[in-house]
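Example with several molecule types.
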Amino acid sequence: MNFSEVIQQLVNGISLGSLYGLVAIGYTMVYGVLRLINFAHGDIMMVGTYMAFFGVSAFLLPWWASFIFAMVLAALLGVVIDKVAYKPLRSASRISSLITAIGVSFLLENLFLVLFGGVPKAFPIPKLFAGSLNIGGVILPFVSIFAPVLGIVFLLILLQLLHHTKYGMAMRALSLDIETTRIMGVNVDAVISLVFAIGSALAAAGGILWSLKYPSINPLMGILPGLKAFAAAVLGGIGDVTGAAIGGFIIGVSEILIVAIFPELAGYKDAFAFLLLILVLLFKPTGIMGKDLGGRF
Amino acid sequence: MRFFGRLMFVLTVLLFAGLASSSSFAKAVKVGVVLPMTGPIASFGQSDWKGIKIAASLKPTVLNGRKLKLILLDNKGDKVETANAVSRLIFKNKVSAVIGAVASGNTLSGAPIAEKAHVPMVTPASTNPLVTKGKKFISRVCFIDPFQGKVAAKYVYNNLHARTAAVIVDMAQDYSVGLARFFIKAFKKMGGKIVGNTFIQTGDQDFSAQIAVVKAHHPDVIYMPTYYQELALFARQARQFGLKQTIMAGDGASEEALIKVGGKAVEGLSFTNHFDPKAAVTPLGKKFVKLYRAKYHEDPSAMAALGADAYFVVANAINRAGSTNRIKINKAIRATKGFKGVTGIITLVNGDPVKSAVIQKVKDGKFVYVTTVNP
Amino acid sequence: MNKKRNSLLTIASIVALFLFLWYASAHFNKYSIRILNDIAIFMMLAVSYNLINGVTGQFSLEPNGFTAIGAYVSSLLTLTAAQKHAMFIIVPMIHPLDTLHLPFLAALIVGGLVTALVGFILAFPVFRVRGDYLAIVTLGFGLVIRVFSNNAISVTNGPLGLKGIGAYTNLWWSWGWAVFSLIVIMRLVNSGYGRAMKAIRDDEDAAIAMGINSFKIKMIAFVTSAFFEGVAGGLLAHLITTISPTLFTFFLTFNLLIIIVVGGLGSMTGTVIATVMVVWGSELLRVVDQPMHLFSFTIPGVPGMRMILFSVLLIVIMLFAREGIMGQKEFSWNGFLNFLRHRKQK
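Resulting structure tokens for the full complex:
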């Protein structure tokens, strides 16, 4: 591989990684607060993408409006799922809510399969993102630039929210101890809802960017990216927002590079994120950015 | 609350059990259909089913007015479920014939049951040679992979004048692996050279690494016998990264979604297929296409057409057998000769059809007919 | 006295079961026999799965991986050299494996042992983590096994899978193994090891403080469960006669999860009841995929409805009937007889 090919693959990896990162942030936030792996998170991403699809194709909204429309609906869905399926189980063992989460995930997938069919739909791409730049042989599709930029913008906004607002402080407090936070007079349920809303909205954003890059959407599209994003979240130290984003980049870049350097290993690509995950858990269970089990975010 | 939950569950099960046993259908001739309606390959099952439904509305009765009743079971694209479903259709529903399944692997898990019970089974779309090999009761209406691979190789060599080809195989589909293998064999035999053999997996969305490999080998043509979703995404990225070679594919490309997803990038993509809705040669094919368009506002895919053909072949055989006796029906199916179906003129030899393939091409955002290749 | 009576009752009911099977194999239609076979195999899988998930409390999601290993190993061993030679068309099979051939029972046991060995090795990394991490790592393991079976073509024949496997599994094999595994696992649960497993489930730190070697106990549960899941995989392969990587997706694990949740996490007899309900019920529920005639109304069939109902069922049980049918309790003859007596007195 020559220099421009290396750069090319790096660019591809970074843009893929930023998508994993966006989805991973939602995982990590929910886990940080509730210690719950929200199995349905990848499917919320799928639902968000479908909403954007309908926004553009059925309601004829401009694409930016569909983008926001989808994020809002996904946020609502996240909150509803929490209220219906997870909240009644807060006092039960954590495994109970994990099983429910698996149920919710299967429900969303099969519901969408029955409602909209298994044939993939073509995600409409606005003209703005259709083109690409060519810099010295390295080809930069606009989406590949836009995705990481938007990802970093979202991350900065989120960090601002977490560290400089009342709600952010409440979230950070929740991740330390829910009961104590409740005693301190914080409306715990409202804050948890907010966490689900933000995480789900970001998943939808990730899903939409994903579909701008790979414009074919189907009801099962959330499964694999969801699992890999989770691996990214653990890799970055689960509960840590910045870590999740970095974990996403690492998984995205290494996945692309491995296939580029060893094309014969292409078939093993999907196993790679998990092998990496197992290794991390073996040698540094708290992840790259993870501190001790106390402070999160 | 706990008790309530349990009670609800038991009641639900009982309700459905009651429903299951109470329904009986007098006089209708029953034909079972096993298709993946959910699960990872649901899109193919759903397409097949659309075609079968249109076919059933065109020819709802057999044996002078007896209704042909279809019993559809979902196999979720799963082998255990396929075996259960075929078994249920044969021994519980007592169907006269079974139509299904889609993926060759699934059909193979249901086939031994039908074979042993002497019930005819017609698969619309399992192209693997093993499906009918050595079987007396399993037939199909689609051509098989060795033929399709050869047709593709001939077209690429003679019409596209390609001498080197890069092959991209979907390692998770026996369909793709088999087809690639037959293409390579035929292409080499003609004097062509395979450069850059790379792999993908169903569900992959990023192909930048494979594109880099193909680019490095400068092939004349890219042969990619995968399903339309991977094909469309690959084409998009390939064009974006400056890969300009013609892409040749198999019948897995035949789905409107290829063009919807692929957009401009799939312009010029050619593929071997079972039938072309715009070049339907038989009266039945023309009628089918017209009805299909009226109902679904799109062209039928090859999957839908094959589903319809499976239905027509079975219905036709029941009429020729003149009874609902399974062995007689099977004999009639296997003796199908010169039947003017939707996808062409079908003659079955040992359960495999001898029929022509078409080459299609994407042009101006539409599938257009290029040529017909006879066996 | 009671003990003796109870074992007599147990033996009697096993005899009754096999009498029933003997009757079934002669008089039932093949569809019903197939469902009976499915029930036995899924019972074996679910009971083993419940040992690690319910009894030991280690929520893991690996059975699809273990089942795959057992299915592949035993099928490769019962296939003849000639069959394998004809089947491996992409890459020839690697050497010693291509000529190895064993009878069915030996192949099943080897399949189980290989799976147990993989479980033994896997236990070292996975039991470094607890709780939800364990779930995700074992889920990843299932995925890795599937990716491996797709790509290690010289061993597994890749996506083409194995075809023409001998249809050796019949009611005697499947139910024989199911009863055997149930007895072994029940005895294990009721032994000192079983009490240690439950102690770990209830409070791992406290159990360790009491001097329980938690790693060793978890290992015993994991390896036992791996062995039986491997054997069950072999039985499954020889029932459906063709296997490929797509058979062993997360979906298989999802089915087993529903079964053990319905039956009660930690209850073996609950699992047995739930297996019958879920496997049989899933066949009954096929009617919702088809048009229904209910009180002269016709409800159009929605293919795929069954899966939605199953997902909803899982959520509803977790929300409203979390203990499932049996909770953590077991069926016991004493309880059953007391129940009967109680009713008579009324």
